[in-house]
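Hi R.,

Here are the chain sequences for the assembly we discussed:
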Amino acid sequence: MKVEEILSKVQQLPPFPQVALKVLEMVGREAPFKEIARVIELDEGFTAEILKICNSPFFGLSRKISSVQEAVVYLGEKYLLEIVTRTASKKYFEAAHRGYDLQRGELWRHAVACAVASDLLQERLGRGKDLALFTASLLHDIGKVVLSSYVADGLKEILERVRAGKPFIEAEKEVIGMDHATLGGMIAKRWNFPEEIIDAILYHHNPKEAKTEYAAKVHIADVLCSTLGIGAGNDELSEKIDSEVLKGLGLSGKDLMEMLVELQDRYEKTQSLFTTEQGDGF
Amino acid sequence: MHQIVVDIGEYQVTDDPSAILITYSLGSCIAVVLYDPVVKVGGMLHLMLPDSEINPLRARERPGMFADTGIPLLLESCERLGAEKSRLQVKVAGGGEMLDSSGFFRIGKRNYAAVRRILWQHGLMIRAQDVGGNANRTVSLEMATGKVKVKISGDGIKEL
Ligand SMILES: [Fe+2]
Ligand SMILES: [Fe+2]
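And here is the predicted structure of the full complex:
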């Protein structure tokens, strides 16, 4: 019964913006950037957001940027596409999520940090930027957005199980009948995301079961953010680390520690562009 | 009463009796808190990693990231405001860890081991602590009283 109610909540989520999906699809088939820019320009909201960022004091430009085609010169293609994904995703995450003990803005910070961490991971592995991976990392905990109020209701029982050594996600499943990764996978499917993104969201805590390497990478990005405590709430430290997956990608403990420094640095730089408020006490 | 937020990889010291030092959501990071009750001088460091060898360049720019470069600076800064080492109350919180059966990462444990060693090297004894486990902690220091509070996500607030 509860599960049906949760699924009906998923139906009520506003659909993921079409432009962002279209951009993702075009990047996937390596469409020329000019075409992608034209698609973005058709959407006033996204264009406005991109121009706002371009004209922010952060870039300190002397003249005003007024088109997406111009903006790309300053932002670079990859960063511009990233802004589209971030703009599309932000509204789902921003609120407080009391089931996970997250104040307003915290889950969004976790999402952004995780996306940044996935970029760093690609660099460390000597691979190029992958917008699908960036998107999967950004959205990996989307299930929490819907599940949070149910977690809040069952929190006492969930935490009892967690204290007995159970991963948080398994406790969610036992107490509520649903966990945030499974639910996140359903949401991504409903939004018509590509298979590798759905798979990565679904298995971000159990990457061994995934069909592609995306889940393993999102898993590692998530571990890095949780280690730094960014949006770690009451649950992230009670999840498992899959060290096989870490070793499988050839990462050592030293790699991870070096990446924590890089992550904190780059995350802060990104934050100065996308304002978020501090917490307000206990 | 006003709040001074200590960001990750940073430290803050104060002699303002109306201030509260606070640092949020430590994860595997550790908060080191120093307080001299006689002059009411205190400080807090939110360190991320055990050893500046991980990135010596960053350690020079941002010593608070690492236990070995951050703790001496925190101590000196407190002393500069009039704190006396022999009177300092040292409290430590954080160093939580995810479930890791292989013990591959263990960054919380490594941080805690480094903190203990460096405090000891400086002749400082830990008076109270709340470290390790799967707990995500937020820590505050009330300057008027020296009270250190730890909030564990999902488990309420306690005084150290
Ligand atoms: Fe998760
Ligand atoms: Fe997460």
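The mean pLDDT of chain B is 96. Chain B has three helices and ten strands.

Let me know if anything looks off.

Best,
T.
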